[in-house]
Amino acid sequence: PRPRPVERPSLRAWASLEYAGSVAAVIGAFKDGGRTDAAAPLARALRAAVAAALDEASVTAPLEVCTIPSTPAAMRARGYAPVEALLARNGIRSARVLRLARERADQARLGAEARRANAAGGLVAAGSLAGRRFLLVDDVLTTGSTLAEAARALAAAGAVAATVAVLAETPLRHPAGSAGSRETLRDIAPQGGYGGRTGVVDPPFRTG
Question: How far is CA 133 from CA 56, 62, 84, 205, in A?
Answer without folding.
Answer: 15, 8, 19, 23
